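User: Here's a chain of 278 residues. Predict its fold as tokens.
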Amino acid sequence: MIVVSLINMKGGVAKTTMAINIADCLASRHGERVLLIDVDPQFNATQCLMSPEDYIAHVAGDGDTILKVFDRSQRVIPSAVANPQQAKPKKLEDIEIVNVKQNFDLLPGNLELYRLEMAPGDGRENRLKNYLQKVQNDYDYVVIDTPPTPSVWMTSALIASDFYLIPVKADPISLTGIDLLRSIIEEKKDNFGLNLECAGLVLTLTEANTKVFQRAKENLENDQYWRRYLYPVSLPKRVGIAQGQLEQMHILSGDNSEAKIAITGITTEFTNRVEENE
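Assistant: Prediction complete.
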């Protein structure tokens, strides 16, 4: 099982779009068994994979979310007619996922992660890795959508991962942040003893004929460190992609041939790179 985190500390770089559609392409075109885990407290990936009605019904019915992985606290259930009962956390191996389509499952996100982040640290960073050890025989790939901020959730995703993939918007401001991101990841690797590899860097929201895109691409191609990680295929900027996601439509299900070719090429490049490092 290969675990990859999509990571960037800047929002608006199509990180969630990349996570969803790489997972979808792995399942649809490569026939891989894929689990997408939404660790971002904003749970945008979940909103793109479940309708609001389905998600509300899922949570109302005590359906499992990422919260069940991190919140391992026992709680007292009061009763007016009997002694209070202790509600124990669900066993990690018993956490139930949501099936999106054939070969594609989701562990939904949950806004309540914000509440847990304020709790004292108790080894919470390792819980996602512990969960994935329980399901490692069920999937070929796990794709983790991470929050765009340094946090315990980003750290937990990196601890659980074999690789990280960086989507970066093709503009000067976005490019200046990737060196800082690299230093933070290297610090996490040292602090937690992680064997974590970069699976590449993908330019996103690109407009191929603009000077901004050409300059961004040239800067990365000439950068001594990042040029070896830059993917030859980029994700084009298309309004229809974002609109379709909110209706649970993925790039491969849409009618934009340029975007289809792009996500197929990006996913193939990703699988080639991680297989080389296996």
